[in-house]
Design a protein that fits this description.
mainly beta; 311 residues
Length: 311
C-alpha cells in the first residue's frame, strides 16, 4: 500500500506541494477527468482504470491497447480502442464515467486510437478509411483514406499521420489528403495532440524537436527539443518534457512551458526539475486540477496548486 506523500518542491522559483497519488500499480500515464478523478493506463497499455477517492480504483477495461491514446470528452466520456489480444480484431468503445456504462461503436482490424472533435463526435481510422461516429453509436461520415492517428481540426478537416510517420492535412474541400510540407529535419511525426479549440496541432519528431501546426495558415513552428507536449489554453502555449539520456537510459527530466503569441515563441520557462530522483516520463495539465505526472518507476505525482506559474 502506498501512503499519501506531501512534500514541497521548487517550481518555477516558488515552493509548491506535490503528492504521490495513492494508486497501487505500475502506470504508464495518467490524465485528469472532468470531475477531478484520474484516468490511469496500465502496463503495456493493457487496461484503463479510474482513481477516485483514497485508494479506490475502478476498472474500465482490461483490453490490450485500451490505454493507448484514450480520448476524453468534456462531459465525462472516455473513448478507446481495445483488443482481446494483439492479433485479433478490436473495437472502439465508449465508457461513461457518470453512469458506468460501456458500448461499442465499431469493430474491425487495424483500428487506431480515437479522438473527440470540438462538436463531441468521435473520429478514428483503420488502414483504409476515416470514420466519424456520434457518441451514441450512429455512424455519421466515412472518408476514403486510411491513417493511424487522426485528429479533427476546427476547419472541419483532419490532421493525421500514417504508420510511416508521414503527416497529412485533409479538409472537406480536398479530393484527397495532402501531405504536409514539414521542415526537412523532421524524420517521424509522433505523439500529435490537438488544442481544445481545434485550431492548432502539436507533435514531436522522435528524438528531436516539438512542432506546432496551424491548419489555417499551414504554418509550422519549432518549439525546441521536447517530448509529450500538452497544450495550455491561457496563456496560450505548450507544456512539454525535456529528457536527457546517456545513450542507454533516461537520466534526467524537466518540464518547461513554451509561451506562444501570434504564432511565435516568446518565452521558455523551466517550471519543474526532477522530483527527489523520480524521473518524469509523461505529463497532463488541467487549469482546474494542476499538473499530473508519471514517473519512470510507474508512480503518479500531482501538483494541484500551481499558483502564479501561468499568469
Amino acid at each position: 500500500m502506498r501512503r499519501l506523500c506531501l512534500i514541497s518542491i521548487l517550481l518555477a522559483g516558488a515552493l509548491f506541494a506535490w503528492e504521490f497519488v495513492p494508486a497501487d500499480g505500475f502506470w504508464l500515464s495518467a490524465k485528469w477527468l472532468p470531475e477531478g478523478e484520474i484516468l490511469l493506463t496500465g502496463t503495456n497499455y493493457r487496461g484503463l482504470f479510474i482513481h477516485r477517492e483514497g485508494e479506490q480504483l475502478d476498472t474500465i477495461s482490461l483490453d490490450w491497447k485500451a490505454g493507448y491514446r484514450s480520448a476524453l470528452s468534456d462531459d465525462g466520456l472516455v473513448a478507446f480502442t481495445g483488443y482481446e489480444e494483439f492479433d485479433l480484431p478490436g473495437c472502439v468503445r465508449v465508457f461513461d464515467t457518470r453512469t458506468g456504462g460501456t458500448w461499442d461503436l465499431h469493430c474491425g482490424r487495424n483500428i487506431g486510437p480515437p479522438s473527440f472533435s470540438t462538436t463531441g463526435d468521435i473520429v478514428f481510422s483503420n488502414s483504409d478509411e476515416i470514420f466519424i461516429y456520434a457518441p451514441d453509436g450512429r455512424q455519421l461520415i466515412r472518408h476514403t483514406g486510411g491513417a493511424y492517428i487522426v485528429l479533427p481540426v476546427e476547419d472541419g478537416g483532419f490532421f493525421f499521420c500514417d504508420r510511416g510517420g508521414i503527416a497529412y492535412h485533409y479538409t472537406p474541400m480536398d479530393d484527397s489528403p495532402v501531405a504536409l510540407k514539414l521542415p526537412g529535419e523532421i524524420r517521424f511525426t509522433f505523439a500529435p495532440e490537438v488544442s481544445r479549440d481545434g485550431r492548432h496541432v502539436v507533435f514531436e519528431d522522435i528524438g528531436g524537436s516539438v512542432f506546432m501546426f496551424n491548419p489555417y495558415e499551414h504554418e509550422i513552428i519549432d518549439l525546441g527539443k521536447g517530448d509529450r507536449p500538452v497544450f495550455v489554453e491561457e496563456p496560450f502555449g505548450v507544456i512539454m518534457l525535456q529528457l536527457e539520456d546517456d545513450g542507454e537510459e533516461i537520466t534526467e527530466g524537466r518540464i518547461v512551458f513554451v509561451r506562444i503569441e501570434n504564432g511565435e515563441v516568446v518565452s521558455v520557462m523551466s517550471i519543474l526539475e526532477n522530483l527527489w530522483g523520480h524521473i518524469i516520463t509523461n505529463i497532463d495539465y488541467s487549469p482546474l486540477y494542476g499538473l499530473l505526472m508519471t514517473t519512470l518507476d510507474g508512480r503518479i505525482i500531482a501538483v494541484r496548486d500551481l499558483g502564479e506559474v501561468f499568469k
